[in-house]
Amino acid sequence: MEHDAEINQRARLRPITEIADALGLGADDIEPYGRYMAKVSMSAVRRAAAGRRGRLLYTTAITATPAGEGKTTVAIGLTQALGRMGLKAAVCLREPSLGPTFGVKGGATGGGLSQIAPMVDINLHFTGDLHAVASAHNLLAAAVDNHIHQGNELGIDPKRVLWRRVMDINDRQLRHIVVGLGAPGDGVVRETGFDITAASEVMAILCLSHDMDDLKARLGRILVGEGRPGTGRKAPWIFAHQIGVIGAMAVLLRDAIKPNLVQTLEGQPAFVHGGPFANIAHGNNSILATQTALGLADFVVTEGGFAADLGAEKFLDIVVPQTGLVPDVVVLVATVRALHYHGGASRSTLHAYDPEALRRGFANLDHHIRTLQRFGLPVVVAVNRFDSDDPRELEAVVAHCQEMGVRAAVADVVARGGEGGVELAETVLATLERERPSFRPAYEWEMPLTEKLERLATQVYGADGVDLSSRARAELEALEERGFGGLPLCVAKTQFSISDDASRRGAPTGWRLQVREVRPSLGAGFVVALTGDVMTMPGLPKEPAALRIDVDQEGFVTGLS
Amino acid sequence: MEHDAEINQRARLRPITEIADALGLGADDIEPYGRYMAKVSMSAVRRAAAGRRGRLLYTTAITATPAGEGKTTVAIGLTQALGRMGLKAAVCLREPSLGPTFGVKGGATGGGLSQIAPMVDINLHFTGDLHAVASAHNLLAAAVDNHIHQGNELGIDPKRVLWRRVMDINDRQLRHIVVGLGAPGDGVVRETGFDITAASEVMAILCLSHDMDDLKARLGRILVGEGRPGTGRKAPWIFAHQIGVIGAMAVLLRDAIKPNLVQTLEGQPAFVHGGPFANIAHGNNSILATQTALGLADFVVTEGGFAADLGAEKFLDIVVPQTGLVPDVVVLVATVRALHYHGGASRSTLHAYDPEALRRGFANLDHHIRTLQRFGLPVVVAVNRFDSDDPRELEAVVAHCQEMGVRAAVADVVARGGEGGVELAETVLATLERERPSFRPAYEWEMPLTEKLERLATQVYGADGVDLSSRARAELEALEERGFGGLPLCVAKTQFSISDDASRRGAPTGWRLQVREVRPSLGAGFVVALTGDVMTMPGLPKEPAALRIDVDQEGFVTGLS
User: Where does ATP bind (chains A, B) (predicted)?
Assistant: First the structure.
């Protein structure tokens, strides 16, 4: 089989105006970026988002192996299958980050015959949204330091500046830095660092904003630092609106707020918009994209980052309560390979026939199914087929799900595109016909923060409880005292285990969630609880993907995956 | 009069496809970015750049006051005037940098009725070229540090890494930093810093490359650092091609290499492409844009950064020898205000009638006229009219030029657009009819580096000679020894004086050029000689422009200038 990049670049795409037209969007409703990409104008977004006609199919996954198990690919393949069946379907995805594209993971545009296109552009600069987020983020950082340098009227303590800088490159060298060295005119010496752009609170804000005014209000609520505490007084908090560059940040995000429209290899519309991390942020594409798609299509497939305990949980506890975007069905992606892994198989033999490991691995699948059922949502399991899979094991997964009373189907979308997703699509449609969501979040926002944490730990992660570090306890108390106890939680946790320990496979029991630090994301509107070490700036591996990537005189790109 | 941003956003623009069509570019020759911006495809660039049909009108200026004197505006107004006269004219400009847009200077899209549009987009992310340059630059930086971190096979000395990082924000805090702090997995501790993106060597390379292969070859020649010198041996130089991410950098620049097409407020085509600094880089738009325009239009107006001793000199000594792009005429922009300044008037009274200061200020104008004549080029002086100008002084400037045997005209293009530039256009056309360039560069590339410096200092800047610091002398010798003595020079010098001392107005005499440091830009293909302090990362002022900028729900932007 050809490499993804070759398949993608040789595909015959439809002009983006045709894709838009099929959705009822006219020439004035879109702003083209090249021939195959466009942004949807804010007036069209407002019109489309005003009424929901579509059913929302939310794609998530079991706990993945380090390579990823094809959740995006299944979401695209399912959309293509629905399209083949004559249904009006669209897919909503997060947009890729340059860092992973040149690092280990590669791009994020699906694989094989289930891809979105044009993948080279989408994986590189796309329509510039990530660059816009980084510019807005870093303008605020420069303005905060400039405020201190120019007299510091607000009395910001240079040792308590919370706002770091961002860059969309995997660059470990920038994790911990000292800035402001040099001459007196070169700023204030202090410690800080860079995160990757996807980890910027501005990205989370972009994905949660309803319109430009909401975006500005949220940007203004960003906590950038603290002043020095007086005797017996709390340190005053300094917010972005006090710095005064909110308008300029919003100008930089003027186009980024508009959803991007591209297409699948089979010509279904794909809204690819926003890409927040699924650990320190909520890991789902923009609400404007999903709302727009739901106003224009009958079936909207979307997906969240990492497994059901991360991206899906955050969608259900952070996004749904403020938007009402309750999924009609959840598609839970599993692979034989990942089930082997969770059943204890060694990394080098994941592709080999091993029914015993598979059976033991069901513990992870079952845990995620129960979690989603506890949210009151209909579940369909999609077994994403790999070439090396033994048919007996694929059947065993489907049979196991049926024993649990859950519909399941094998998806062969990498090799066969939409055609290979028809069985899954039919299973989803059958579920939509017979089941209705009866949504219950994991917690109510008005509960105290510690109680919300306890709920998540015990009901979603299967922990026995929560252990707070003394720092985390003090930070949670401070948030309650300052009136932010009613915000939802965003737990930053490893994606390689349901627990907070990346080495524990399956469905770990007999453990307690260790919360070491709490960070308010007041602009995004959630409280981040950090468990273990969370990487907000990845590094490059010894042989980064960047070494294999090239482009010829005609602009044809090789080595991108 | 309305503010520039309001005039620009309310203007009725023609679809970019129409602008392209008038140049003979079909729908397949351009890639639209929204309705009013496009990139020209590489195949169309190759076709157009193959044959030159147009005359090249190069715009430069006398030494400016800190506010700038409207060179870009005159270039746009002249193009609009030629268009009004029924001639097929296009303008080529550098693209703006975000840093100054939010800092002191504001954007770079002209003013009043002589602007290019859509100015908000052009001044913000435009088609993403600066972001692409920054990404490519910073990917190389991350790869260099990753190489050291992962075992350092090339033996790069962490104390001799020359490749810094870039950001398109005015952020003094990042000028001098220490990176790689933290745990062992967080990289290698060393000193470095950030420059503004326009100062990146990648930007200079983009502007000087003939095609993708040339771009890759130049990227590969970037000097990223040195190894440790052995006993009695020179430190080995480490080049970017040894790091191995040239293909990935080129992929990031795949679209950035294509010229951008927009329009003037009066509908003439404007190629806005590349924005290298005019101090540590060569300060002119891309050669691909100029060559494309010259293949499609009969009159191509372009401009270089700062005054004739900087942008124009670099165009003539760096760009022309490798492209043959000899200007047919040079338009030298002067203002009454700047002449007052050079005649000794205080900054607060530059707008007041002061014929004595004006007369004294002619020294600066005359110096630049003689410099350009020494290059063998026909010169026309354009007196850019400001509202506060006294008509007697405008006339005095024109009369003075005529006494020197140089044609001159008042340009009233801010207030009246192309109509206000017709007199200037007629003067230019008359000059084209009567004079032919007989081009002589300031030096031949094969001269030794010190001799080339001497030539520039005495013949272009009016110095008595050159004083080299011991460091600069050693660096020049090392370059000659390593075989790079045949490269042209790029002198980084203050833009506020013809001398190397920003406080010296007029045409200073009796001084020697102080060269303190020499840096090879081997990818760009020139040797940078630094005189005095050259700022490669600006800071924000106490009241940055960012504080005044805002955007409303409909996306209408205010406060941008």
Answer: 65-72
The single residue listed with the structure tokens 């949502």 is A377
Cα distances (angstroms) measured from residue B402 to each of B69, B329, B370, B410, B427: 22, 17, 14, 13, 12
Give chain B's length: 561
CA distance B341 to B7: 30
How many whole angstroms separate alpha carbon B45 and alpha carbon B29?
9
Asked if A547 lies within 8 A of B33 by C-beta distance, the reply is no
User: Whole-number mean pLDDT of chain A?
Assistant: 95
CB A203 within 8 A of CB A274: yes
- Beta-strand runs (E) in A62-131: 89-93, 110-111, 114-117
Segment A11-23, tens digit of pLDDT: 999 999 999 999 9
Residue A152 touches partner B, C-beta closer than 8 Å: no
Tell me whether residues B187 and A178 touch, CB distance under 8 A. no
**What pLDDT does residue A279 have?**
84
pLDDT higher than 80, residue B106: no
Which residue is associated with the tokens 């009822």?
A: A24
Q: Write out pLDDT tens, residues A200-220.
A: 999 999 999 999 999 999 999
Tokens standing for A272? 């690819």
Instruction: Note the helical H segments in B98-177.
Output: 98-102, 119-123, 129-149
Backbone angles phi, psi at A288, to 5 degrees: -65, -40
Map tokens 């007029």 to a residue.
B506
Using a CB–CB cutoff of 8 Å, tell me whether B324 touches chain A.
no
Radius of gyration, alpha carbons of chain B: 23
Domains of chain A in start order, with CATH, are 4-127+256-434 (3.40.50.300), 136-252 (3.30.1510.10), 449-531 (3.10.410.10)
Q: Do A247 and B167 touch (CB under 8 A)?
A: no
What's the gap between Cα B551 and its chain centre?
29
* pTM for the full predicted model: 0.96
Answer yes or no: do A187 and B175 touch at CB < 8 A: yes
Of B31, B32, B175, the CB nearest to A182: B175
Nearest CB neighbour to B139, from listed A169, A178, A248? A169
Query: CA A354 to CA A345: how far, in whole Å?
Result: 8
State whether residue A441 sits within 8 Å of chain B by CB: no
Average the pLDDT over B202-220 and give the result: 97
* Closest residue on chain B to A131 (Cα): B131
Structure tokens at A432: 């939509």
Q: CB distance from A281 to chain B under 8 Å?
A: no
Whose CA is closest to A375, among A284, A457, A330, A441?
A: A441
φ, ψ of residue A178 to 5 degrees: the values are -115, 130
Contacts of B528 (CB under 8 A, 6+ apart): B280, B489, B490, B491, B492, B518, B519, B520, B521
> What burial letters (b/e) apply to A341-360, b meaning 16+ CB within 10 Å?
bbbebeeeebeeebeebbeb
- Return the CA Rg of chain A: 23
Handedness of CA A129, A132, A138, A144 (dihedral sign): negative
Task: Provide the greatest CA pair distance for chain A.
Answer: 71
Q: pLDDT digit string (tens) for A511-530? A: 999 999 999 999 999 999 99
One-letter amino acid at A113 equals L
